[in-house]
């Protein structure tokens, strides 16, 4: 580059930044092509559903495959993606090796009435992509490309997008110089769709709230509300997986990558708030433990100094013990608060029933229950006492068909509760089938014999025995 070249670039940049940006609304059901865009600040504005599909772990795949194998994988992947997007009324635009962008616009008739929604097109394209990957592409890759198979994450968002041309045409002094131009898709919709694709697990479709809101009713049943973090930013929406086309029963069995337990986990906003509160209490516990360690070290030094100066070792030890006991009392107080908070979170399942239980999710319930048991033991409770106080777990376990665990809570309540037993027929049915219903009957009869049940509650406990025997069939 010489000074003349610099001056030309400087003038061109000045022109670009001074020009007013003009927006042109698109009325076609397809976005503009590169040939339709002009080399100026004139942009096309469209309302579109943007879909990104991305091969998971493509770096690992490339590092562990020959270059010739990757040519086959990428060419097959690109061809499949373009075909699926086209056949669902969209176009593909950005090709980034292991990543492709599809664009979908509402189809309208001559009266400007929407005949097919952009979001419906995008969802059907995503379903087509998942179907072809698991029932066709992976089959051929496995047979013809050294046993390789792939899995992809798909992200979709809907909103306004601006399309503009970038780059430059040829060179004035060389008419044979190729044009280096492309178009860029400006706006949060494109960025968010890309992020949703990054956050989607293998075999999963992650869509934004705006996509879900715009879907036709026939497509809304398969989705689960979800929230995922990328860095410090929270992305909320809906997810589903293995969402194939309706004809897959004719295709045999899908070929897909085994489940990866390291993929991101969904969490509802309510759960995120609850877990955040638990983490805050955990941090307080850690801080108290640190303070206790510092206090013990301080006591040790003070004791040494007192011995050296005043030879009052006994008094110093008494003071040290008192401080330590007080610190331990404070620590236990925090533990009790921690335990009570978890119990309160579990009690919400009793108040809100299955909607709340389902939003929490089984994996987080297991984590919360484990924390409950650890905290309860730490404050001196027995396992029976912990289970009796957490009686709402009967509903949680029952919802996830964990009948053995639900029955275990019922037996613990029979041994300890003075009021009632959180009853669930399905758990007792499981106990009868597995020949352990005697545990519940034995626990109640023992309580009745040793008069440990309040007088006004004895009849209700006898009724439980009758209910068990009735389920057993006699």
TrEMBL record:
**Coiled coil keyword on record:** yes
Residue ranges that the Swiss-Prot or TrEMBL entry lists as coiled coil: 271-331
What keywords appear on the UniProt entry?
Answer: Coiled coil
What is any Pfam family matched here?
Answer: Guanylate_cyc
Could you confirm whether the keyword Metal-binding appears in this record?
no
Q: Which InterPro entries match?
A: A/G_cyclase (IPR001054), Adenylyl/Guanylyl_Cyclase_3/4 (IPR050697), Nucleotide_cyclase (IPR029787)
Domain Guanylate cyclase, by residue range, is 49-197
Q: Which GO terms describe its biological process?
A: cyclic nucleotide biosynthetic process; intracellular signal transduction
Q: List the GO molecular function terms.
A: adenylate cyclase activity
Question: According to its UniProt record, which protein family does this protein belong to?
Answer: Belongs to the adenylyl cyclase class-3 family.
Q: What is this protein called?
A: Adenylate cyclase, class 3
């Amino acid at each position: 580059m010489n000074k003349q070249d610099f001056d030309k670039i400087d003038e061109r940049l000045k022109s670009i930044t001074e020009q007013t940006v003009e927006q042109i609304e698109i009325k076609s059901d397809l976005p503009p092509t590169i040939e339709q865009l002009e080399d100026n600040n004139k942009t096309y504005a469209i309302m579109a559903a943007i879909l990104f599909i991305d091969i998971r772990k493509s770096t690992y795949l490339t590092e562990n495959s020959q270059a010739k194998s990757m040519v086959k994988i990428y060419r097959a992947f690109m061809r499949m993606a373009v075909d699926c997007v086209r056949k669902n009324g969209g176009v593909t635009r950005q090709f980034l090796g292991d990543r492709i962008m599809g664009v979908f616009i509402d189809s309208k008739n001559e009266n400007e009435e929407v005949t097919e929604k952009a979001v419906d097109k995008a969802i059907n394209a995503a379903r087509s992509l998942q179907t072809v990957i698991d029932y066709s592409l992976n089959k051929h890759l496995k047979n013809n490309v050294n046993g390789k198979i792939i899995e992809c994450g798909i992200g979709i968002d809907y909103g306004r997008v601006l399309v503009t041309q970038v780059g430059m045409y040829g060179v004035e002094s060389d008419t044979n110089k190729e044009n280096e131009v492309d178009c860029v898709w400006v706006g949060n919709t494109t960025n968010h769709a890309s992020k949703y694709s990054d956050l989607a697990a293998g075999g999963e479709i992650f869509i934004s709230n705006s996509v879900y809101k715009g879907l036709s009713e026939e497509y809304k049943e398969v989705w689960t509300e979800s929230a995922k973090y990328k860095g410090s930013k929270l992305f909320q929406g809906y997810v589903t997986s293995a969402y194939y086309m309706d004809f897959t029963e004719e295709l045999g069995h899908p070929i897909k990558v085994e489940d990866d337990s390291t993929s991101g986990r969904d969490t509802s906003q309510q759960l995120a708030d609850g877990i955040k509160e638990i983490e805050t209490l955990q941090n307080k516990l850690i801080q108290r433990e640190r303070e206790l360690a510092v206090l013990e070290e301080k006591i040790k030094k003070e004791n040494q100094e007192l011995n050296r100066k005043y030879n009052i070792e006994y008094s110093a030890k008494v003071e040290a013990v008192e401080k330590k006991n007080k610190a331990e009392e404070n620590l236990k107080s925090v533990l009790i608060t921690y335990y009570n908070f978890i119990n309160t979170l579990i009690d919400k399942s009793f108040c809100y029933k299955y909607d709340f239980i389902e939003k929490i999710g089984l994996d987080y319930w297991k984590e919360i229950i484990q924390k409950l048991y650890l905290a309860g033991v730490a404050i001196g409770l027995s396992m029976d006492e912990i289970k009796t106080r957490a009686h709402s777990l009967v509903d949680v376990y029952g919802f996830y068909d964990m009948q053995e665990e639900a029955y275990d809570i019922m037996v613990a309540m029979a041994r300890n509760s003075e009021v009632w037993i959180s009853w669930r027929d399905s758990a007792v049915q499981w106990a009868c089938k597995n020949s352990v219903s005697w545990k519940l009957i034995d626990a109640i009869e023992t309580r009745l014999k040793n008069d440990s049940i309040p007088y006004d509650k004895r009849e209700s406990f006898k009724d439980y025995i009758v209910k068990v025997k009735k389920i057993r069939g006699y």
